Amino acid sequence: MLFNPYFEICSLGFLIVLFLYFFRRDNMLDTSSTLYAVFIVVAIFNLSFDIISAFTLTYAAQVPAWINMVVNPLYLATQIVLCAIFMLYTMALVNYLTHENRKNILLLLLPAALSALFILLSPMHNYIIYIDDAFNYVHGPLYNFIYLVAFFYIFSGLFFVSRYRRRVIRLQYNTILAYVIMTVAAVAFQYFYPQYLVSGMAVTIAIMMMFLTFQNPENFTDNLTGLYAAPAFPLTLDKLINNRKEYGLIVIDINNLKFVNTIYGIQGGDELLAQIGAFMMSSFGANNAFRIKGDRFVGIYTPNSKVNGEAVRKRFEESWNLSGSEAVISVSICQIPMSQYASNRDDVLAIMESATMMLKTMDKGANLDIDLQTADTLYRRLSVDTALQYAIRHST
After folding, report:
1. The pTM is what?
2. DSSP 8-class letter at 132
3. Which among 365, 270, 255 is positioned nearest to 317, based on CA atoms?
4. pLDDT tens across 69-119, in order?
5. 3-state SS, one letter per residue, for 48-115
6. Residues facing 249 on adjacent strands
């Protein structure tokens, strides 16, 4: 059979470009974005195997049989893996990937693992595919079993976003629904017209839709400074807490930003924010610097970081070039050790807010170093407030 792989070749090109763009920075801020990245990588391998097999099967008589019996099972196995990752991705979107659901998740993944292994062993049993004596590519008696497993995971993904509909926004739900419809339609078309390889194209279009709607890194980036924006901050905290990493926060509040805009103009204010963003990125690294409000920046430091509160303070004692003029800007800086107190991101955000409220009671331009005793006091106060709120909510 003469296969037409050119749709897949174009799709592979798009995926490689998307891969390079997505991975130019650490955009795996949470479980869903990590699984999305894995989804892209597996899709690239799947398309590559599909394209290679299209040529090796077309010229099967001239190609050693073992090549087809290696490449084709790899293509079919990665297709199963791709569908299973899609299900995991939908689970992550609805916050189902938790320790409490671990057993259910492992049970759901078991058919994928067994199916992929069975497919990879095709050269030993010929139940899925084989090359006959006339060098023809032949489907074995259990070939259609692959479709059943793939559809199981695709519709399982749709089930989870439908079952927990309130946990996803409408755009996410519609995108997942579009993925299912396009994938099923493409697989059905390719089943009846196997010479046209279009399933990879459908997956690529769906991946691009996910990227453009809710996986675009630009959604987490502050355009003016290039730093991570507010939505990325709690996701980064989750990673730090889950990885049990020791860390702390340096919070920088610009005092009277409106006054800066009045004196130096909006352009001067933007220049200031851009320069502070460049300083934050060079000091803390691109993955640990954030602009979470118009006049508030946060840097995350670790024991291995070269930057500390003193170095930040010294920089802000120096001048900034605003529209050709040198200006010293008043800022308030707070350094907070976090990892030994906060066990979840809500605690981190609450302690940070309490510390910045303390900073606001001081003179503008003040510096506040939260020592271990003060941090412990803030955490105890937070625990009491949380307990009171819980009691009030459950008293009725």
Report:
1. 0.75
2. -
3. 365
4. 899 999 999 999 999 999 999 999 888 988 889 999 999 999 999 999 999
5. HHHHHHHHHHHCCCCCCHHHHHHHHHHHHHHHHHHHHHHHHHHHHHCCCCCHHHHHHHHHHHHHHHHH
6. 300, 336
